[in-house]
Please model this.
Amino acid sequence: MRIDAADMHYRELNQQIRDAVAAGEKSFDLVNINGQRYIGDGIRGQIDFTIEGVPGNDLGAFMDGPTVRVKGNAQDAVANTMNDGRIVIEGHAGDVLGYGMRGGLLLVRGRIGYRVGIHMKAYRGTKPVVVAGGTAGDFLGEYMAGGILIVLGLDRRQNEDIVGYWCGTGMHGGAIYVRGEIDPSHVASQSAGVREAGEEDLREIQPYVDEFCHTFSFEIEELMSEPFLRIAPISHRPYGAKYAA
Amino acid sequence: MSSAPTKNDAKKSPEGRGSLSAKTTRAPIYRPADFLWTRDADRCALCKRCVQQCGFDAITWENGPVVDPAKCVGCHRCEAFCPQNAITIEPNPQYFKPHPLWTESHRKNLWIQAETGGVLLTGMGNDLPYPVLWDHLLLDACQVTNPSIDPLREPMELRTFLGRKPDAVEVRQTQYGPKMSTELPPNLELETPIVFAAMSYGSISLNAQKAIAMAATETGTYWNTGEGGLHEDLKPYAHRAIVQCASGRFGVTADYLNAGAAIEIKIGQGAKPGIGGHLPGEKVSPQVSETRMIPVGSDAISPAPQHDIYSIEDLRQLIFALKEASNYEKPVSVKIAAVHNVGAIASGIVRAGADIVYLDGFRGGTGAAPTTIRDHLGIPIEIAIAVVDEQLRQEGIRNQASVIAAGGIRSCADAAKAIALGADAVAIGTGALLALGCTLCQRCYTGRCSWGITTQDPALTRRLDPYLGSLRVANLVRAWSAELEEILGAMGVNAVESLRGSRERLRAVGLDQTTMDILGVKPAGIGA
Model:
C-alpha cells in the first residue's frame, strides 16, 4: 500500500496505517514523509515499511515485529521501547535512539546522536542490537542493562571522537563495541571498563556487522580488520554498595 | 573495637587525593535496639512458631526462643501468631540522656552511617511529625435552613469519571429526545472516587497485588501496575488496571499498553521526588523477571529522570507515543511528586496532552527510598491539590484533565477534604496495605516482610491469601464510600460532583493566613 504523506498530519497518517494493518495490509510505501512522528508506533506483526523522506520522532516506538527502511535521515527516539523488529536508516539518526529497547535490530548508516541505547535490556531469547556506521554522541549506553551497541566510526572528520563523553554511565549489563581508538576518559570509569575485544567478542558481533555490511554494501573483512574495543559494566550491581544495610 | 592498623589503612596514603566513592568498610559501632522483645516463660508452650513466623531471622532456637534485638523490626508477626499470647513487644526503654536537638532517631541514624558509610534506606511514608493539614480542616454541615439529605433513603452519587472533558457539549433534538453529538474523550468510570496507588509486582508480592486487583474489580474502581509489568495471573483484572510506563520501561510492550484501562507515565513519586527506583537483583525472581522482562537476578534500575524527557515538549512526545500505541482509546495519566512549583508543572502536563494529573504528596509511601529523601523533600498534598486546582481553573483548562490526589490519605475524611479542595479522586497505597495486614514497620526495602506483602520469598508470600486479602481491601473501599455518602448527606448534597472543588464548604482551624490563602479556605467562624 502506498501512502503519499505530503501535508498529512501524523495522526491521519498513522490512523490510515493502523486501519490498513487491521484490514490485513502487510506492506507500506510511505512517500513524501516530512517529520511525521510515531510511524510504526505500537504496530505488531510481520509488516514492512519503506519510508521516503525524513520520519519524525519516535519512529518504531513500542513496535513489535515490523521491518522499517528509511531512505533518508531519521530524527530522535527511533526504536523507543521497541520489543522486536528491524529498522534500517540509510542516513543519520538523532538522539535517544533505542531507549529501553528490548529486542530487534537498528542499523544506522551514518552518525547517531546523544543518549543512544539508554536502558536497553536483553530478555530471554531477545537481544536488542544497534549498529551505527558513523560516530556517537555523549551518554552512549547510559544505564544500559543488556543488548549490544556497535559504533563503527566510519567517515570521521579529522580528530573527531568516535564516541562522546560519559559513555556507559550507570551501565549494568550488555556491551558496547567501538571500532577504532577512543579516549579512555570518555568512558564512565565508575561503571564501565574498556578492553580490546577478543576473538569470542568478535564472534558475538560478527553477525550484526555482517548484517550492516550486507545492508549498506560494505566489505565485512575490511570493517572487521581494524581492532574493536569492548566497553562493558564492571559490576552488575553498580549501586549495590551505596546503601546502608 | 581494635584500632590496630589494617591492610586497608596502609593503602590509604595520606598524600592521596581521597575519594568518596571508595568501597566502604563496615566498622561496627554500639547501637541500642529499637524494640524490647519479651516472652512470658510460664505461658510459652515452646512451639517454635515465633521462630517460624519471623521473616527477619531475629528469633532463633536454643532450648527456647532467643531474640537478637538488633534484628527485631517490631512487625508483631510473632506476637500475632503466638498461640499462648506469651510475647510482648515494646519500645526499648534503654535510657539515653534526652537531647532536644540530637533526638534518639538522629543518634541512631548517625551510628548506622558511621558503621556502614551508606545511604540510609526506609520504606512506607514520611514518619516525621510535620503538621498534617487535613487535621486543620473541617467540613461544613447543614442545619435547619439548608436541610441535609438522608443517605439511608436518598440515592447518593459517587460515580466519578477520570479523563479529559470537552470544553462544551453539543446537544441536538431528535424525535427520541435530546442526543449529545459531541464525541467524548476516553474516561475511566469509577463507582467511587477512590483508586489504588501504583505498587509494582516486585515492590509487593504477587498475592498482595492480586488482592488489590481483585478488590478494584469487585468495587468498580482501578488498580495500578506500578512499573513492574503485568503478571500473567493478573490479566483477568487488566481491564481494571492503570498500566504504568516509567523510566525503566519494565514490561512495557504494545500488548501491555493495550491491556489496561489507562496508561500512566510515572515522572515522580511523593516519597522520593526527583529520584528513581532500584529493585535489587536479589528480588528479581524468575517470576518478577518475567513481568519486568529482564534477566533473573539483574538489578532493575529506574533512572531518576526518564532520559527521553527533559521538557514539557518531550513529555508531550511520550504522551502521544502512548496514545498512538493505544489508538487514542485510553486516557493517559502523568504522575508527579508534589513539589514547590507543582502548579506550573501540572499546567504544563495538561497542556502536553495528559488526561489525568496524579499528584503524590510528600507523605506518600514507597517500597524503598533513601530516608533523607523521603523525610525532607516535597510538599504536602493538601497544598498541592489547592494550588493545581486553582492554577488550572485560572488558566481555563481545568476540564482538560482530572486530578488524582495521593500521599497520606488515611481515612474517608481525608478523601472528602481532598475532593473539596479540588481533587477528582484520591489514590490509596499504604491504606490498602494496612488492609492486607501491614503493621507499618517500614522495612519493605529489606524484602523480608513477615506478613507476605513486600517480599518475593515464597515461604513468606504464601502467608497472604489473595482472596481473603481482597475481601479486606474491598471492605475498606466500601466503608469509605459509605462514609463519604454520609458526609455528602450531612453537607446537603447528593453527588460527589457537588463536593468537588467546593472549598467554600471547608473551614480551617489553627492555620496561618498565608496557608489559608493558598488553600483557598476561610477560618472557622466566618460564615458564607
In short: Helices of chain A lie at 10-22, 199-216, 220-225. Residues 92-239 of chain A form a domain with the Pectate Lyase C-like fold (CATH 2.160.20.60).
